[in-house]
Amino acid sequence: SRPIQIVPSVLPADFSKLGEECRALEEAGVDRIQWDVMDGVFVPNLTFGPDVIAACRDHVEVPFEAHLMVEDPDLLAARYVEAGCGMLIVHAETARHLHRTLGAIRDMDASPAVALNPSTPVDAVRHVLDLVDMVLVMTVNPGFGGQDYIATMEPKVAELRRLIVEGGYDVDIEVDGGIGPGTIGGAASAGANVLVAGSALYRDPEGLGHAVSDLRARAE
Ligand code: DX5
User: Fold this and answer.
1) Does any ligand 1 atom lie closer than 6 A to the CB of residue 180?
2) Distance CA 216, CA 100 (A)
3) What's the pTM?
4) Is the CB–ligand 1 distance for residue 175 below 6 Å?
5) Using alpha carbons only, how large is the chain's radius of gyration in Å?
6) Is 176 a catalytic residue?
7) Of 48, 131, 152, 177, which cross-links 139 as Cys (Cβ 3.0–4.6 Å)?
8) For the segment 120-138, what is each residue's pLDDT rounded down to a tens digit?
9) How far apart are CA 145 and CA 96, in angstroms?
């Protein structure tokens, strides 16, 4: 089985001090930091331009991934790589030519990944599993943190896992949305090994470090 990775979403962090917040997350032992990039068109919310991420890049060593919830990922991808994101996650629903877009990200020496909204079938990524390092199965409808986990995504994660294993692909499965102590076990059992948590990390009364280690233990 693939190593468990706990990846925080910075969405619930204090936006007035994102550099310090990234340092706190790194000290809490996270594996990567996810920037939820939203353009106000593909999803009804607007968050980080590349300059915000670039401003935080040198505050920490931990890798950054950009979850591009944007209408036109081809337009912006290079900017987020330049800003310091080692992995770019493109929504299958937004790339007119997903196969080409993922190849272009690899050509920028970044790690390509693809995301599926809850209603999008696994089949949408069947023909690009050889191009990606990770598939993100959304377990909420993207746009906001703090939403309820959509448990019906677990069979979808299991189906994707089967596709990856049968094809012999070296691909991680990430889930994002509503992941916390009560839901992470089901997501991991279904086959997810990269788990994104936002609000669950910040609401742990014992702090980020405890939240990260507790989630990691529940996913193992
Ligand atoms: C979806 C966002 C959220 C965020 C995590 O638009 O991407 O899923 O990462 O939010 P929580 O963990 O609070 O559901």
Assistant:
1) no
2) 35
3) 0.98
4) no
5) 16
6) yes
7) 177
8) 999 999 999 999 999 999 9
9) 27
